[in-house]
Amino acid sequence: xxxxxxxxxxxxTAIISGRSRDKVFEFIGLTExxxxxxxxxxxxxxxxxxxxxxQGKEVSSFQTASEILPMIDEVFKSLLSRSQKMCSVLNRNxxxxxxHSN
Length: 102
Known about the structure:
InterPro entries: HAD-like_sf (IPR036412), HAD_sf (IPR023214), OTSB-like (IPR044651), Trehalose_PPase (IPR003337). The protein is an alpha+beta fold and 102 residues long.
């Protein structure tokens, strides 16, 4: 048993990241934890409303930005067409990432 598994047996535990929730879950893989990806815009936790994770376990999922996904996609397309290779524009599903490097 890992330290994280022992900790989550004592306290409700959340992993919060700027990465996508699926990627963070892939790294950790414990269904008993809460996962907040995309800077809190996509949250998954232990089952309350039934759905299944990649391991087939029941989980509860909540995407705070799900109703604005079409707008995020439009922003991505607009930024991509205007970036003119000055920066990297990535669609991270629930957010758009812009990276500039010299």
